[in-house]
Amino acid sequence: MATEIDTPPPPSPAPARAAIDERHLRTDRWWLQPTLVVAGLLAFIVYATWRAFANADYYAAPYVSPFYSPCLAENCEEMRGGPNWALFGDWWSLSPALLFLFLPLGFRLTCYYYRKAYFRSFWGSPPACAVAEPHTAYSGETRFPLLLNNSHRYFFYASAGIAVILTYDAILGFRDEHYEWGHAGLGTLLGLVNITLVWAYTLSCHSCRHIFGGRLKNFSAHPLRYRMWTWISRLNGRHALLAWASLTSLGLTDLYVYLLATDVFDDPQLF
Q1: Given this model, what pLDDT does residue 222 score?
Q2: pTM metric for this prediction
Q3: How far is CA 42 from CA 36, 38, 201, in A?
Q4: Please, what is the angle between helix 223-236 and helix 239-261, to 10°?
Q5: How many CB atoms within 10 Å of residue 88?
Q6: Less Cβ around it within 10 Å: N or C end of the chain?
Q7: Rounded distance, CA 200 to CA 193, Å?
């Protein structure tokens, strides 16, 4: 006797994607953050470009602008005890800030946070979460100039060296205008705040975190590196905040030195 075999019903067709004309469904002010990022970065770029090409008013004893340190050209102002060595002779007629300013600039341009910031704000790639980007093709960081972002670790090494020099500048700030030690002014305090933020931003870098613990297979065998990796990881969680804070402190420190050098006011002495 033949038996009937129950065959399952054919699967129902998958539901079609909803026909929505809008590019996104966000109703909040998602455009505010990328707009503020554009405004903030443009303001710093314009100011830093003006100051870098000015080639003047960057030293008011004992303070030096972080944009001009180290000053390694013959046309540098005489900074007693400061990091000014005439490694570049009189053939260099441009601003000495242009010699090494590209190193911290390259460090920030290739920084993971700044990449996110200017990708979203300037290029709209994408402008915000759940908002489609206007580009039809995406090549990632496989083409020039974005291919240079892979050099971030090497810019980290260079920027760490410059941070050491800025630390030396901050120590020299404990002198007065006559180069006598044991004094501190408002510029000294600004220099200490600035170098603290610069080091915090530099050490919170993803490359720094990877250098200390990225390739370790056994943390227990490297307790010191594990402790450093843990500390840097905590800083890394505030990397974006430190990026903006250090950028602001660099600009304000330079502005303060400029105002002193142009005799707008005298440096208030703390002791």
Answers
A1: 87
A2: 0.86
A3: 10, 6, 20
A4: 70
A5: 16
A6: N
A7: 11
The set of residues, in sequence order, having a beta carbon less than 8 Å from that of 21 and lying 6+ positions away, is: none
Residue type (1 letter), 228: M
Contact 165/83 with Cβ under 8 angstroms? yes
Q: How far is CA 80 from CA 88, 101, 172, 191, in A?
A: 18, 21, 10, 17
**Pick from 160, 184, 162: which is nearest to 173 by CA?**
184
117-128 pLDDT, tens digit per residue, is: 988 888 888 888
Return d(Cα 7, Cα 220) in angstroms, integer. 59
- Pairing mode of beta strands 71-73, 84-88: parallel
One-letter amino acid identity for 24?
H
**Residues 132-137: what's their mean pLDDT?**
76
Q: Residue 246 — left, alpha, or beta (φ > 0 → left; ψ -120 to 50 → alpha)?
A: alpha
- Residue 6 phi, psi dihedral angles, 5° rounding: -75, 120
3-state secondary structure of 21: coil
Each residue's pLDDT tens digit, 87-121: 898 899 999 999 989 999 999 999 999 998 988 88
pLDDT for position 192: 97
Pick left, alpha or beta for residue 225 (phi over 0 → left; psi -120 to 50 → alpha; otherwise beta). Answer: alpha
* List of residues 6+ apart from 79 with CB closer than 8 A: 59, 61, 64, 71
The structure tokens 């402790």 sit at 227
CA distance 246 to 193: 9
